[in-house]
Design brief:
It is a single chain. The chain is α+β, with helices and mostly antiparallel strands. It has 9 helices and 8 strands. It has helices spanning 2-20, 24-35, 63-84, 93-150, 155-207, 231-242, 268-281, 307-315, 351-354; strands at residues 53-58, 210-214, 219-224, 254-260, 262-265, 293-298, 331-338, 341-347. The strands form 2 sheets. It has a 4-stranded antiparallel sheet with strand order 2-3-1-4. A 4-stranded mixed sheet has the order 5-8-7-6, covered by helices on one side. Strand 6, helix 8 (307-315) and strand 7 form a beta-alpha-beta unit. Helix 4 (93-150) packs antiparallel against helix 5 (155-207) and helix 7 (268-281) packs parallel to helix 8 (307-315). The longest helix has 58 residues, at 93-150. It is elongated.
Length: 365
């Protein structure tokens, strides 16, 4: 009976362990996200800071492969877009921020090294002075003992010994000064090596056109570094090249693509302000009054958001005289959320319906 009961207990404990560890990978990912120690692909929090991204829904458990495929294909299309539109690929905002951080870190390291050197020199000087004082005291004691035992002719020998000690101390000081100079040169060399490494890294990021991030399950976010290429225009450029067919060189695991020209936190006030910024930036009032508009809103996982309040708040900034058409609008305001990120873009001239809402399943094979 005892063996069977122990066997049952071990089986039940194994089941409990398995049940507890079901979501171990996700919890581990979240912890590393909060600490900021995970690689850049998983750090979704920085996408809330007015970024230019493409949200891609893909096959579950294929996010990494899909992200790598999309990064390769989108970087190729970005190069084509830059050439055809005669746009120079200047420094992106990320490289500028990294350069500032590198400068601050280099300045801090230089200050710390100089402070350490000064402290070390002061300590060396203090030690030298104490050693000199001790040697002089010892020599004086020796001289007194010698005068007491040998008479008045011995102090001259003591004076000669003092002179020899002083010469030795001077020679030691000179050698130590040379050693400190060599140490400073080595420190300067090490700082120069760190600067060269930071320059190489900054040039590597400068040449990088986009980066992929693993979002919640079944989603991949692609950040476009050059803000002269909005995500909506890049998608239009790609789908126009393959029209009326779907682009077949992105990734076999992609289901749908959503452009987000501007992002913020997934909060009601932030999302309404985001809609106001985009409506002003895209000069919504210059669109023809004959073109109807609609707001395409989708919320993923954030149950605290009030759909009606957000849609009414954004629609309040649209100029008067525009009709609403939710089935086939000519101008579409796309607003979507994932995790703690909200993104918005405005697609004009019926492009969204022309390219079948960038949904791969809507295209005929």
């Amino acid at each position: 009976m005892s063996e069977t009961s122990n066997h049952k207990k071990s089986a039940s404990t194994d089941r409990k362990r398995k049940f507890k560890q079901q979501y171990h990978g996700q919890n581990k990912r979240r912890k590393l996200n909060d600490d900021g120690k995970k690689p850049q692909k998983y750090d979704i929090g920085q996408l809330t800071k007015s970024r230019n991204i493409l949200l891609c829904s893909c096959q579950k458990y294929k996010e990494k492969r899909c992200g790598r495929d999309l990064q390769r294909s989108f970087s190729r299309y970005i190069e084509q877009y830059l050439k055809e539109n005669n746009i120079e690929n200047g420094e992106n905002d990320k490289t500028k921020d990294e350069k500032k951080e590198d400068k601050d870190n280099n300045d801090k390291t230089e200050e710390e090294t100089t402070k350490k050197e000064m402290d070390d020199e002061d300590e060396d000087i203090d030690l030298k002075m104490t050693n000199k004082d001790k040697t002089k005291e010892n020599n004086a004691i020796k001289d007194e003992n010698q005068t007491e035992t040998n008479g008045d002719n011995k102090p001259k020998d003591g004076q000669d010994e003092d002179e020899d000690i002083d010469l030795k101390m001077k020679n030691n000081d000179e050698t130590e000064k040379e050693d400190t100079k060599e140490r400073k040169k080595e420190v300067v060399k090490s700082v120069n090596i760190a600067d060269e490494i930071s320059k190489e890294l900054s040039s590597f990021h400068k040449n990088k056109l986009c980066e992929w991030y693993e979002a919640p399950s079944g989603l991949v976010a692609i950040e476009i570094f050059n803000k002269k290429i909005p995500a909506s225009k890049l998608l239009k450029f790609i789908f126009d090249k393959h029209h009326p067919n779907k682009p077949d060189d992105l990734s076999p695991f992609v289901f749908k693509l959503v452009p987000m020209d501007l992002t913020s936190y997934a909060k009601i006030d932030d999302m309404i302000n985001l809609g106001k910024q985009m409506i002003e930036r895209e000069k919504f009032g210059e669109i023809s009054k004959d073109d109807s508009y609609g707001i395409n809103y989708k919320n993923r996982g954030n149950k605290q958001l009030d759909r009606n309040e957000i849609i009414k708040g954004i629609a309040g900034f649209v100029p008067e005289g525009y009709k609403v058409n939710l089935s086939q609008p000519k101008t579409v305001i796309i607003l979507q959320t994932f995790s703690k990120v909200a993104g918005l873009s405005i697609i004009k001239d019926g492009v969204f319906t022309k390219h079948k809402e960038y949904n791969m399943s809507n295209f005929k094979e």
